[in-house]
Specification:
By secondary structure, this protein is α/β, with parallel strands linked by helices. The chain has six helices and five strands, in the order βαβαβαβαβαα. Strands 2-1-3-5-4 form a five-stranded parallel sheet, with helices on both faces.
């Protein structure tokens, strides 16, 4: 059983999918920290995305799953933080290669774009795929510098 801590968060437009994905990540054996939102009441996605990025930057977790209407707003906001490599995924191939080649540490999903079962498949692949450092680490260094 993997006890890696995964941060999960959403805005109101991603709340329902967040609740389902949160339970699924626990079923997969991960420790999950839910940073909100906790209802369908309107809220601001940048607040959630910044909190998740901050927790990763402080070493409180290695990765996060963020959900909004399309995943785009969460992704744009998270990527503003140094060391964050957020990706919007609506297919399993992107999820796999975002980890293999880019060592993405934030997965962004869109409740209005991706159905529950596909979102679970994307999440599982993203969580279970390891980074292939070799030539790819050099490219990540180019991004950071």
């Amino acid at each position: 059983m993997n006890k890696e801590k995964i941060i999960i968060g959403s805005d109101h437009a991603g709340y329902e999918l967040k609740e389902k994905i949160k339970l699924y990540i626990v079923e997969l054996g991960y420790d999950v920290e839910d940073i909100g939102t906790y209802s369908k009441e309107s809220c601001d996605y940048p607040v959630i995305a910044k909190e998740a990025a901050g927790l990763i930057m402080k070493g409180k977790a290695q990765r996060a799953v963020l959900i909004c209407g399309t995943g785009v707003g969460m992704c744009i906001t998270a990527n503003k933080s140094k060391g964050i490599r957020a990706v919007v995924c609506s297919d399993t191939t992107t999820a796999k290669f975002s980890r293999l080649h880019n060592n993405s540490n934030v997965l962004c999903l869109g409740q209005r774009i991706t159905g529950e079962y596909l979102a679970k498949d994307i999440c599982k692949i993203w969580l279970e795929t390891e980074f292939e450092a070799q030539r790819h680490q050099y490219r990540l260094n180019l991004i950071e510098n």
